Amino acid sequence: MNSNVIVVSHAVVAQCSRCSVRRQLGKDDVPAHSASFSMFSVMKLVLVIIFTTTLAYAADVPMTQDELVRRTQELYDAVVPGNQAPWKKYFADDCIFSDEKGRTFDKTKLVADVTPVPAGYSGSIKVDKVQSRIVGDTAVLSYDANETETIFGQNLTARYHITDTWLRRNGEWKIIASQAHRYYEDPAIGKIDPKKFGDFIGSYELAPNQTRSVTAEGENLFVERKGKKEQLFPETSDLFFRKGVEGRILFRYDAYGKVDALIDRRNNEDVVWRKTK
Question: By C-alpha distance, which of 16, 60, 11 is closest to 171?
Fold first, then answer.
């Protein structure tokens, strides 16, 4: 408790005690019921002072990174059981929440989205690689969220990066904005079919003087443009990816069963390179 509260309350109680003693010694002509009422009123005043000052003291306690992490982990621990209480507690009523799927929620929709996982599902989300900036009444927490999920005995993992902005208003720290994205992960490497390399090998043109070539070395397929050579890894025998690059490379067949184009598919949109030779 604040030391000033202790001093004030002690002083008030001491004064009340002195009044009581003087009354008992007959030195003050004060009715007993009036003195009791006065004592009761003073004690109420002391309690009000203590309560008010305690709230003010609590509001002045500085926020720390450890406390932000504790609260954030409490939120994620509530996901699997679908416990909405921490989400109601730590998110501001006027918050903006944008998830890794590109959806943006207000608090009502956010809380409603927190429901228990289906039967046969389990998992956890752990906060990692934390950074923070805390200035005055604003705190920014940036961190990874590492998810493990088990679906009927099959294990899955995912990594997200999230930035939360906390704001202190009326003595309470709450999240006013949250933004998440999912880290890109390469797909699993499938089985390649070298017998199809003959269909893929050749030169492809996007526009005049904009070309790329596809070559093979043993059982490996490569694409090259302006001296930059990248290996094409198979997701299936006809669908390829480059490590660390979002999107897919696939080859289009014409009505006669011959490859007539290389398609660079990015976020479900295609850039078509016409085969020239």
Answer: 60
Write down the pTM of the prediction. Answer: 0.69
Beta-bridge partners for 271 = 264
- Among 31-45, 59-73, 139-153, 170-184, the minimum mean pLDDT is found in 31-45
Long-range contacts of 11-18 (CB under 8 A, 24+ apart): 12/42, 12/45, 12/46, 13/42, 13/43, 13/46, 15/42, 16/42, 16/43
Identify the CA nearest to 181 among candidates 163, 196, 206: 163
- CATH code: domain 194-275 is 2.40.128.50
Contact 204, 185 (CB under 8 A): no
Q: Which tokens sit at 243? A: 């490590």
Residue-wise pLDDT tens digits, 68-106: 999 999 999 999 999 999 999 999 999 999 999 999 999
**Backbone torsions φ then ψ of 186, nearest 5 degrees:** -65, 145
Q: What CATH class does 65-182 carry?
A: alpha beta
Distance between CA 251 and CA 272 in Å, rounded?
10
Encoded tokens for 34: 């009036």
Report the run of H or E that residue 88 belongs to, with start and end: helix 85-90
Task: Return the domain boundaries, the chain.
Answer: 3-60, 65-182, 194-275
Give the containing element (helix H, strand E) for 95: strand 91-98
What digits encode the pLDDT tens for the residues 103-136?
A: 999 999 999 999 999 999 999 999 999 999 999 9
